[in-house]
Structure formats: C-alpha cells, structure tokens
Design brief:
By secondary structure, the chain is α/β, with parallel strands linked by helices. The relative contact order is 0.13. Helix 2 links the parallel strand 1 and strand 2. Helix 2 packs across helix 10, helix 5 crosses helix 6 and helix 7 packs parallel to helix 8. It is built from twelve helices and twelve strands.
Length: 344
C-alpha cells in the first residue's frame, strides 16, 4: 500500500509539474500578441462617410484581441492630396502598420513605398494601389457587385429600357463597379440602352441635378446606377420628384439610404461586408508586420519578398432590400456592441 501511495504521489507531482510546464510553454510560445505600444492605423478619405465606421469597428476589435493600439485617421474632404497629408501624419508616428483606402491609385505609390521602406506595413482596402509595394489588398469583388446590380435592374425592367450611370472617375473601386454594370448590360441585356453618364463625385447635389437633367433629356429613363451611397440621396430625390419611375440602384448604405430603401424610394443596394473587411484587413496587416512567423518553402528570404503577402482577399457583399435593411443600421449596431465607434 505504501509503495502504491508513493508511486501515486510521484505520478501526481509529475503530472502537476508537466501541466505547469505546458501552461508556461503555452504562454511563452503564443506569438499572436502585440508588443507594448504596437499601433495600427486605418486611413481614409471623406472620413465622415458612414461606410468606414463598421470597417474600423472590426479593425479595432481585432486589434484589441491582439492587445494592439488602433487609430482612425483621414481627411473629411474628397481630396487625394489632403488624404496623403493625413497618411504622412500617421506615418510620422511610426506605426506598425497602416490599413489605407487610397482615393486614387497612382498618387499613393510613393507614400506607400516610403512607408514600407520605413518599416511600416501597408495593406490597402476597398480600393487599391496595385503598382505600389503594399503587402496585401482586401475588398469585395467590385466586378461581381456591378454585375449583380445590372442583373437586378434589368430583370425588374423585363430586360428592356433606358438607364444611366453616375460615377466618380479615378476612384478605382467605383470605376470597377460602374464598368462592370455597363459591361453586364451590354453582354446579357442588349435591349437595355445606356443613355447617359454623369460625374457626381459623391455629391448629392450634383447627383440630384444630373438625374433631373438626364430625365428631362430622356423621358423614358427607367434606372440609374451609382457606385456609392452619397450620390444616391440626391438621385433618389430627383427620381421621386419625377414620379418615382426611375429605379435607383447603388453600392454601399448609410442610415438615410436604408430609410429610403424601406420607404420604396430606392430600388436596392449591394453592400460590401464591412466588418469582415476591417477584421481581415487587420489580420493581413498584422501578419505583414510579422513575416518571421512562417518559414515557407519559397525564395522569400533570398528575394526579400514579404512571406505574408496575400495578393487579394474577397470580404464578400450583401444584398440590401426592404426586407433586411434593419440589419444594416450603424446606430443599432453600435448600441448592440456597446463601444464608441471611431472615437476609440
């Protein structure tokens, strides 16, 4: 009995010791944590646009889970030079990484490359700067969004009629949505006729005036598509004043757009999955800053290529209609999460 009890005690002690060692090893071996002061920044243009808020909310949540600091930055203007200035201001603080929505591709090549040379990882989201040295790019499939929007509009018009588009020339993701919309109409819906294009540049007033002019010039105008939400507010008002026969289709949503969809004043929207864009955007950025965590069977070390580079991640999109619009209100979402949104 004594021998049995002694053996049992030794086994118990060994088990306790092994458990402690394993627990300690687990703590010290976990590399997915930030160092004190390690900071990641999100940078945008037109920073007051509601689209960015859920992106940052999930960017922030991922950062908190890793024990990192995060910040929301950008310019309230639709001005690439002013956005680059805010990018440079963020870069001057030497953050670990920046998740940036470049308003225009080429002007951001030099700032992004300079950030990479400084040691700050850069990932683009929603719009890209493909000729820069950015590590990864995350977005919804803008071509798929434009294609779906075209199909939805054409089906609602029985495949025949006139349509127009509002656009923001030079903004990469918006250009892709509009081009895909038009291309789909031409390829699949030959009886749908494009009768006008106008640059609204995310300005509701310009969109309102453009749709009024288009409707006057083309009394049979049945639909108008735009690649973002702000223009849709003005477009829908013009359509309403014209009797409501013009279907307004767009990409993205905000509270006003959701109200108008529920009221039947807007036909519908394709909305990128903003939360996944922010969450996975942070993950890509964090991994880009820590490429030493993997040892892939390729020439990354020889070439100096960042082993964590992922050329493209599709965060998906949702179709917003009157039936599901309640699920996309920012204020309700923020209340449910109990956070301060972009202010923290």
């Amino acid at each position: 009995m004594r021998k049995f009890l002694s053996t049992l005690a030794i086994a118990a002690a060994a088990s306790t010791c092994l458990g402690s060692v394993q627990a300690l090893a687990g703590e010290t071996a976990n590399p997915f944590k930030c160092e004190p002061g390690e900071k990641y920044v999100m940078n945008v243009m037109v920073s007051g646009v509601e689209y960015w808020f859920p992106v940052y909310e999930m960017f922030k949540q991922a950062g908190q889970q890793f024990g990192c600091e995060t910040a929301y930055t950008g310019t309230p203007e639709y001005d690439v030079n002013k956005q680059i200035a805010t990018f440079d201001q963020a870069l001057a603080q030497k953050p670990a990484g920046i998740l940036v929505h470049p308003m225009n591709s080429d002007p951001f090549i030099e700032p992004i490359n300079r950030a990479i040379e400084q040691g700050t990882a850069v990932v683009t989201f929603a719009a890209d700067s493909p000729n820069s040295k950015r590590i990864s790019y995350i977005t919804s499939d803008n071509n798929a969004e434009g294609t779906y929007a075209a199909d939805a509009v054409a089906k609602a018009m029985d495949g025949k009629g006139e349509y127009a588009v509002l656009e923001n020339p030079g903004q990469d993701n918006h250009d892709k949505r509009v081009n895909a919309f038009v291309a789909r109409m031409e390829a699949k819906w030959p009886d749908m006729k494009l009768v006008g294009r106008a640059a609204s540049n995310q300005d509701p007033t310009k969109a309102y005036q453009a749709v009024l002019s288009l409707a006057q010039a083309h009394p049979n105008l049945g639909a108008v598509f735009m690649p973002e939400a702000n223009s849709a507010i003005g477009a829908a008002q013009a359509a309403k004043e014209g009797g409501g026969k013009i279907r307004v289709m767009l990409a993205d949503v905000n509270a006003k757009i959701l109200d108008m969809i529920k009221a039947g004043e807007i036909f519908g929207s394709v909305n990128p999955n903003q939360g996944m864009q922010g969450y996975m955007g942070f993950m890509l950025l964090w991994l880009a800053k820590h490429p030493q965590l993997i040892d892939p069977m390729n020439d990354a070390k020889r070439s100096g290529f960042n082993a964590m580079s992922v050329p493209f991640v599709d965060n998906g999109f949702s179709i917003v209609t009157a039936e599901n619009a309640d699920d996309f209100y920012w204020d309700k979402y923020l209340q449910r999460r109990g956070t301060k949104g972009i202010d923290e």
